[in-house]
Amino acid sequence: MSRTLEASEIHKYFGGVKAVQGVSLTLETARIIGLIGPNGSGKSTLLNVIAGIEKPTKGTVTVDGRRVDGWPAHRMVELGVAKTHQIPKPFLGMTCRENVAVAMMYGSRREGEPASALEESRRILAMVGLDRRADAPASNLTVQERKRLEFARVLATGAGLVLLDEIFAGLSPDELRDAIALFARVQKEQGFGALVVEHVMRAVMILSDFVVVIEEGRKIAEGSPKEVVEDPAVIEAYLGSEATNVTP
Fold first, then answer.
1. Cβ-contact 46, 36 below 8 angstroms
2. Which string of DSSP letters, residue by residue, matches 39-71?
3. Is the pTM of this model over 0.85?
4. Based on CB atoms within 10 Å of each CB, which residue in 135, 148, 202, 245 is the most buried?
5. CA 247 vs CA 78, 133, 200, 226: distances in Å
């Protein structure tokens, strides 16, 4: 089923700090939008507003035309909009399989039977390359494995629109290559739409259909990956001249 999320003129203030100032974007099923900008530019705050973790100071969020800004995060997940954490936050005392099963039971799938959720979680873990770690405690996972588990939990909710906060950060070159390939494969198979906050430009260039750039809470550019990395304003504000040499 095709889904559309629209964030319109989003503002988010924390006291006198204007973290997000009038940013708009549209995310649709099967589309990947990269959201980039300097540290502190408001990217994660915008994701948190869309996900229901923060309420916007001004602006609206709609899903399939239904206004949802101000909804709490658990209702957004039930609606089919789910977000990863920049620092993965699994239930450390649970196994990978149990972590995924919980997401399945309380997401939009609403799987009511724990046994069924645990069985289906094996398939989802296999999708992200964690099938051999299904019964390992989350506390024993490496950084890369925790990021994959975080991704698996979002998939387990049944979300058609996912918000991914730096899932490629902190990986070695080989891990990054594998993670990009895995994400591309799973996204193609599942067909979800993704809004991806990322500093790893190789991932942005390879995966994104469209890129939005924000600086100090304001949108300064948008377009195809090629258009964005060649935009003088983006180069000056964020990328630097060497970024024009980034290739997939």
1. no
2. TTSSHHHHHHHHHTSS--SEEEEEETTEE-TT-
3. yes
4. 148
5. 38, 33, 12, 9
